[in-house]
């Protein structure tokens, strides 16, 4: 099998996907390094799932170049599949097998699987190992999905909204699991709606909106320095709300106080959260037609 | 490198068979259905006494046994797999398996293996129940059992492949039973399973001859019914070469159709 060893686990150039005239993914470029944990963020319908499913080999692209572990996923054979792990969004399988039976079976499909009991322990389902999957709670079933995705010891793991339905403690445990996979050198591509999850786990994140990658970078750099600049907000003498972005909010507040000669009404100093920055990125790229449609 | 096809198929047969016996609806509508029908027909018509040509009369139960074995082959193959695979396609099972190094051939071998494990158990239990509960006399001639063996294996393989091919038809898992069961039920009515074959009009017999169930049932009648019953068949013959040819053709059709229609997921639907 032809495998090109490069530093990139995933390499995307000019990727486009058109469904019956609608462009879901539009000239997307992206590199994910080996061993990196990358979070793909974006609202529903932004092209996130389409992109990931093209990388997983489930969908064919319209145009562009894609390489996953050195292989074109549209032609990825069984050897290639044994090197990746996929955790899909929740499915409605019948769940008539027990957790152990299901994991044993999936382990048998891979050349170099992890120990089934260790995987069950890693997702915290030891007490449910002999229980049929249909009888588990939604969050527990999600952990089975994750276990099935990692039992084959993948070099590259796709996680599609993995912690939906987890309670906070389960989410913390899951983060620990992902960190240990990362420590073993697993490359991870994570899509999530939870920005705290991306901030906890990812080395870098990409924000996708309208089928385009609107920003890529380390989590604490996404949106650029301007988006992180604190905002000072107050009401001036006429009662109008004023807003200033400044690197020196203290100095600015002092000058406002001096100018008014009294305590300003409604004074706030705001440091944008990751969520504010993310929403700013997504909204600034929202299609202009939406507003027109809303007015019509 | 992925694991060997042999290891994958064996592992598949194990989980497929477990799943089969844990699903109450397949257990009733596929595994036990022929038993239920055999019991109902025997109870309903036994009052009429023995049936068949003079000198070779047998009990109603004995006259129904070959048809029920044939129905079991059809249900275990066609109905079971067509519904099962259509549901696996729509509930995400196939999508998940499609992301693993399981080869499609391994998946098919798992399904066919499951059909053989469950279909063999079903036929064996039908024959044992027929002999012990209904007192049906079983053939002693080894040649008859040899016929049974090849008709059973050829019929079951053909039905399994046709089930895989038919699974492409239902548009969703929920509609699978509604699409598949009427087809299978209709075949059982026109192929001499529920209604005694020689009672059917010639045009219906000719129509039924286009489909495999008629031939499986005919082969099974040749095994389990007295020689004198041969005169009730079309052209007064069991026509075993005809059984082999008809099932052989359907085997090829089933193989080609399943190769052409099977996909792990509906790509770009």
List the helices and strands and how they pair.
The complex is a heterodimer of chains A (296) and B (269).
Chain A (H helix, E strand, L loop, with lengths): L7 E12 L2 E12 L3 E5 L6 H9 L6 E6 L9 H4 L2 E4 L11 H10 L7 H7 L15 H13 L5 E5 L7 H16 L3 E5 L3 H7 L2 E6 L2 E7 L5 H5 L2 E5 L5 E5 L3 H12 L4 E6 L3 H11 L4 H7 L1
Parallel strand pairs in A: 3-7, 3-8, 5-6, 6-7
Antiparallel strand pairs in A: 1-2, 1-4, 8-9, 10-11, 10-12
Chain B lengths: L4 H18 L1 H22 L14 H32 L1 H6 L5 H29 L9 H25 L6 H18 L11 H7 L3 H13 L15 H22 L8
Helix pairs in contact in B: 1-5, 2-3, 2-5, 3-5, 3-6, 3-7, 3-9, 5-6, 6-9, 6-10, 9-10
CATH topology of the largest domain in chain A: Rossmann fold
Strand order, main sheet of chain A: write it out.
5-6-7-3-8-9
Averaged pLDDT of chain A: 88
- The total domain count of chain B is 1
CATH superfamily caption of the largest domain in chain A: P-loop containing nucleotide triphosphate hydrolases
Rg of chain A (CA only): 23 Å
Helix share, percent of chain A: 25-40%
Largest sheet of chain A: 6 strands, mixed
Please state roughly what percent of the residues of chain B sit in beta strands, choosing from under 5%, 5-15%, 15-25%, 25-35%, 35-45% or over 45%. under 5%
Beta-strand segment tally of chain A: 12
How widely separated are the two ends of chain A? Answer: 56 Å
Q: Low-confidence parts of chain A lasting 5 or more residues at pLDDT below 50?
A: 288-296
User: Quick one: CATH class of the largest domain in chain A?
Assistant: Alpha Beta
What's the total number of strands of chain B? 0
Largest sheet of chain B: none
Please give the radius of gyration of chain B in angstroms: 19 Å
């Amino acid at each position: 099998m032809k495998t090109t060893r490069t530093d990139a686990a995933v390499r995307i150039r000019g990727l486009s996907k058109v469904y019956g005239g609608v462009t879901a993914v539009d000239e997307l470029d992206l590199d994910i390094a080996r061993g990196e944990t990358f979070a793909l963020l974006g609202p529903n319908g932004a092209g996130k799932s389409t992109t990931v499913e093209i990388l997983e080999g489930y969908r064919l692209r319209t145009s562009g170049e894609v390489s996953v572990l050195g292989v074109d996923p549209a032609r990825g054979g069984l050897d290639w599949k044994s090197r990746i792990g996929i955790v899909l969004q929740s499915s409605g399988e019948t769940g008539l097998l027990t957790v152990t039976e299901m994991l044993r079976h999936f382990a048998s499909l891979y050349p170099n699987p992890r120990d089934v009991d260790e995987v069950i322990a890693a997702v915290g389902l030891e007490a449910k190992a002999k229980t049929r999957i249909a009888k588990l709670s939604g969050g527990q079933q999600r952990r089975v999905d994750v276990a099935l995705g990692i039992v084959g010891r993948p070099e590259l793991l796709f996680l599609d909204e993995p912690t939906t339905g987890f309670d906070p403690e389960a989410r913390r445990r899951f983060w620990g699991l992902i960190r240990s996979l990362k420590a073993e050198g697993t490359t991870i591509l994570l899509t999530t709606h939870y920005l705290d999850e991306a901030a906890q786990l990812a080395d870098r994140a990409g924000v996708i909106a309208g089928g385009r990658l609107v920003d890529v970078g380390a989590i604490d750099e996404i949106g650029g320095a301007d988006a992180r600049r604190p905002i000072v907000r107050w009401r001036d003498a006429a009662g109008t709300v004023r807003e200033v972005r400044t690197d020196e909010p203290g100095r600015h507040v002092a000058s406002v106080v001096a100018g008014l000669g009294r305590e300003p009404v409604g004074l706030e100093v705001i440091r944008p959260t990751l969520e504010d920055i993310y929403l700013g990125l997504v909204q600034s790229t929202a299609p202009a037609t939406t507003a027109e449609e809303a007015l019509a | 490198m992925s694991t060997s096809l042999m290891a994958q198929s064996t592992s598949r047969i194990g989980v497929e068979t477990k799943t089969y016996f844990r699903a109450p609806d397949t257990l009733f509508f596929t595994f036990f259905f022929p038993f239920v029908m055999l019991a109902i027909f025997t109870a309903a018509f036994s009052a009429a006494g023995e049936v068949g040509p003079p000198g070779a009369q047998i009990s109603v139960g004995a006259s129904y046994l070959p048809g029920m074995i044939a129905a079991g082959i059809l249900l275990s193959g066609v109905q079971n797999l067509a519904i099962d695979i259509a549901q696996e396609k729509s509930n995400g099972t196939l999508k998940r398996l499609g992301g693993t190094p399981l080869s499609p051939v391994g998946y098919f071998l798992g399904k066919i293996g499951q059909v053989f494990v469950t279909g063999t158990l079903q036929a064996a239990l039908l024959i044992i129940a027929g002999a012990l509960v209904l007192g049906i006399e079983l053939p002693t001639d080894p040649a008859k059992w040899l016929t049974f063996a090849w008709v059973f294996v050829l019929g079951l393989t053909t039905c399994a492949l046709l089930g895989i091919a038919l699974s492409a038809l239902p548009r969703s898992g929920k509609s699978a039973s509604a699409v598949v069961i009427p087809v299978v039920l209709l075949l059982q009515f026109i192929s001499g399973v529920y209604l005694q074959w020689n009672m059917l009009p010639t045009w219906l017999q000719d129509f039924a001859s286009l489909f495999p169930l008629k031939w499986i049932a005919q082969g099974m009648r040749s095994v389990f019914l007295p020689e004198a019953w041969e005169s009730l068949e079309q052209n007064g013959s069991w026509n075993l070469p005809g059984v082999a040819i008809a099932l052989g053709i359907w085997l090829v059709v089933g193989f080609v159709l399943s190769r052409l229609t099977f996909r792990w997921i509906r790509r770009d639907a």
